[in-house]
Amino acid sequence: MPLVPIEWLGSHVELPAGLTPEGLAAALVRVGLEEETIHAADVAGPVVVGRVLTRQAEEHKNGKVVNYCRVDVGQHNDAPGTGKEPSDLPSRGIVCGAHNFDVGDYVVVSLPGAVLPGGFAISARKTYGHLSDGMICSMRELGLGEDHDGIIVLAAAGDAEAASGLPAVGEDALAHLGLGERTLEINVTPDRGYCFSMRGIAREYHHSTGAPFADPGLPESLDAPIPSPTPDGFPVEVRDGSPIHGNVGCDRFVTRVVRGIDPTAESPKWLRDRLTAAGMRPISLAVDATNYVMLDLGQPLHAYDLGRLRGPIVVRRARAGERHTTLDGVERTLDAEDLLITDSGAERVLGIAGVMGGADTEITEATVDVLVEAAHFDPVSIARSARRHKLPSEASKRFERGVDPELPPVAAQRVVDLLVEYGGGSAGEASDLSDVRPVPPIDFSASEVARLTGLDVADERIAAILADIGCAVEGAGDAWRVTPPTWRFDLTGPAHLVEEVARLVGYDEIPTALPQAPAGRGLTAVQRQRRDLARALAEQGWVQVLSSPFVGAGSFDAQGIPGDDPRRLALRLSNPLQEEAPYMRTCLLDSLLETVRLNVARANPAVGVFETGLVTRPEGIRPAPPARVGRRPSDAELDGLAAALAAQPLHVAGVACGPMAPVDYGFAPPAWDWRDAVEAVETAARTVGARTTRRAAERAPWHPGRCAQIFAEGAAIGWAGELAPAVCAAFDLPARSVAFEFDADALCAAARPGGFDVRPILTPPAAKEDIALVVDADVTAGELEDVVREAAGPLLEDLRLFDVYTGEQVAEGRKSLAFALRLRGEATLTAEETARVRKRVLKAARKAFGAELRA
To answer: What pLDDT score does 246 carry?
Structure first.
């Protein structure tokens, strides 16, 4: 994110006196640039201007020669004859190992209490036989550069002109050095790439406050006109046979030659100070100039040692397997989609375009002739290369967000001006290879502002706002043609222009109009059923949880799911959050069992949890190409997309183990068992108004002999029962833990129309009939119960199984099932009426199962 030095920003837009980073942040946030942080100064505490009064060189036993100095630091001086080492002069005693200064020189002194970059705290300390009461600072010690051979001499003795521009002795030196200033860092969204420059941020401050703004990115802002391309300009070719998004990777390439630069020339102090404040280290004049213009205008540039180039420069795509060593010293294998800058007949790679250059033609201490490059590259190509090679350079950050294609000649000229003025060079040949396409205009109606935002803005103000952001506006009323500026790639339609108007008018000006909710609407039937299911299970004592939908293959193994089971067919994520859990779960138990394991491992003695969530079943999906944009997909395309989507039914699952309640004095709570799991499913079915039956089944992860398959209105919806011992061991659960899982969508679909039978409240007394039926041992109670319920008819109020008997009184292979029937009618039932019900039940059971009345 860009740092915004206030002094630098003020060179492009008028700022109020005393503007703080907090005030700047408040102004910028009004136009959508959020504050990231405010950086404190790297140097803190008393760092002042000092004047060397005496200097005494002393050689010590280790052969090192140091200087003991008395330094005048103004109001910070010790009085004559006082201090830690008394002196006849008002001053402080300081030991210094550098020798590039003399008596009378003005220097930078950090006094005790100061903190230098890296957290280095200054204090008085005994060294080389003296008490050093401060430190005379070098460039590196203050974070201004790498020079550590000598200290900073602000003005030499006798140089009255240099001394006149300094703060008084003893006064703060940080402001003079460009240090000690807090700096605002802002967050720039991807669509506002032009704000990666002082130019863009100054423009936004102007939009927020109305402060006068001078655009430094226009040719008119230059001191001299941009020269036309010369016939002998450095030759450049673009050979890009791999268009991306309809554009070649490079549509503009500007070069400028500067000859005769003094290789020892340093960047001016103001330029070094601005680079340092913006978080960039000064290196050399040529490199500093390109970095400065990039930060100022937003146009990345590159400087080549002209003497090491072998033209022409060729912009091309990489060849498969081609390798290149970038400036960071890493040799990289290039991809065929990488855009390269090359020379020597396109054979030598100079750098990855818009990302990072190479070492072959970099600027060195001996460079006297420089080729300045300012190009415009396709954002997509640069973004892919930067991510592919993990090289998020300052240049790539700007190119991938979009750079103004009209900036290259202006930016190149600014670099040339700096090299000529401060390096003593002379401007030479120029070239400009351009295939930039004009920005297409947008048909716009001013009434769109009111329609989309509710803002009542006059047409004149809308036109003024659009012109202020750089648009060319033609027409009036409902027939405007608006051409966005070349630096606003995000403005491609009328809605984007409306957003700009709303942004600059102020989002807080948009009226609040709450839509009136129409009466008679609420939860849909399916939504209500799903909430009822969760509430019914919670009322039974189950606790609802939410587990991760991502699982690993180990979960299928731990549950004992066979290799050919459809549940093992799972979708694998291409970019999983965790490599050990790359699959979408096909059942809720895949992840819920892990949740219970964690609870048990954390000494939770009683666990009874359930979850409602989607599972992913990819059986039968077919790949389909993505639908094209710009029009409604055809029915065939929609059908293809639907076929490519995996089914995601809503499931409900639960796992329980241990006691149903905490153990208390004198009370032994029952433990969860398989009946509770079955009852949970049947409770859910009753909640939505569906009838269930069950039969014994075998299915992992349940115990082979203690698993029930549940049916609702004849459709299989789920399973419930006791977990297999091997599964309990695999998940570290107590023996005889129980679980259930059912398809909530299938259950709700099986619910009877209307949901529930609403029966009248009858006041006559109920009649009770018990009937014991002997059937084959493989007939389930649920199957027989359905027949009894159907035969009993509308008089049946309640039916309950109260006894199951096998033994001497029934034949081998048979069993007795005894049911209690409670009958009630609109009048008191007679003995004959109850007898007829009993007779119908017996007849229907005999027909269905060969049942006999137990004697």
So the answer is: 47
Q: Tell me, what's the pLDDT at 148? A: 66
Q: How many CB atoms lie within 10 A of CB 253?
A: 24
- Helix-helix angle 494-505:459-468, to 10 degrees: 100
| Domain 47-177 in CATH 2.40.50.140 | yes
Q: Could you give the CA distance from residue 804 to residue 785 in angstroms, rounded to a whole number?
A: 13
Cα 639 to Cα 501: distance, rounded to the nearest angstrom: 41
Q: Which residues contact 297 (CB under 8 A, 6 or more apart)?
A: 197, 198, 199, 216, 217, 407, 410, 411, 414
**What CATH class does 220-434 carry?**
alpha beta
What letters, b where the CB count within 10 A reaches 16 and e where it falls short, cover 63-72? eeebbbbbbb
Per DSSP bridges, beta strands 356-357 and 348-352 are antiparallel
Q: Are 58 and 66 in contact (CB under 8 A)?
A: yes
Tokens of 191: 């669509």
Q: Please tell us whether the domain made up of 444-509 is placed in CATH 3.30.56.10.
A: yes
CA 255 to chain centre: 38
Q: How would you classify the pairing of strands 92-96 and 302-305?
A: unpaired
- In 3D space, the residue among 631, 610, 613, 837 whose CA is nearest the CA of residue 740 turns out to be 610
Strand partners, 178: none
pTM over 0.85, yes/no: no
Note the Cα 29 to chain centre separation in Å.
Answer: 21
Pick the CATH number of 525-750 from 3.90.1200.10, 3.30.930.10, 3.40.50.2000, 3.30.870.10: 3.30.930.10
The span from the CA of 290 to the CA of 414, in Å, is 9
- Reported as a single tens digit per residue, the pLDDT across 790-829 is 999 999 988 999 999 998 888 898 999 999 999 999 899 9
Q: What is the pLDDT of residue 758?
A: 63
Please, are residues 42 and 179 in contact by the beta-carbon 8 Å criterion? yes
Looking at the DSSP bridge assignments, the partners of residue 728 are none
Per the CB < 8 A criterion, the answer to whether 438 and 486 are in contact is no
Phi-psi region of 445 (alpha: psi -120 to 50; beta: other; left: phi over 0): beta
- Tokens standing for residue 547: 């587990």
Both structure tokens of 313 = 């420069």
pLDDT of residue 207: 94
| Rounded-to-integer distance, Cα 341 and Cα 841, Å | 92
Task: Read off the DSSP letter of residue 38.
Answer: E
Query: For the chain, what are the domain ranges?
Result: 3-40+182-215, 47-177, 220-434, 444-509, 525-750, 767-853
Judge contact between 115 and 46, C-beta under 8 A.
no
What pLDDT is stored for residue 329 in this prediction? Answer: 83
User: In what side-by-side order are the strands of the sheet with 34-39?
Assistant: 3-4, 183-187, 34-39
As a whole number of angstroms, the distance between CA 504 and CA 555 comes to 55
DSSP state of 740: E
Number of C-beta neighbours around residue 526 at 10 A: 13
Between the CA of residue 310 and those of 102, 253, 412, 778, what are the distances in Å?
Answer: 49, 17, 21, 93
Question: Is residue 8 classed as helix, strand or coil in its secondary structure?
Answer: helix
DSSP symbol at 300 = -
Fold annotation for 767-853: Alpha-Beta Plaits (3.30.70)
pLDDT averaged over every residue in the chain: 89
Residue 321 confidence (pLDDT): 85
R_g of the chain computed on alpha carbons = 42
Residues of the chain predicted below pLDDT 50: 244-246
> C-alpha 312: how far from its chain's center?
42
The sheet with strand 692-696 has its strands ordered as 543-544, 607-614, 650-657, 738-743, 715-723, 702-712, 692-696
* Continuous segment of H or E residues that includes residue 187: strand 183-187
What are the angstrom distances between the C-alpha of 623 and each of 17, 246, 279, 754? 63, 27, 49, 40
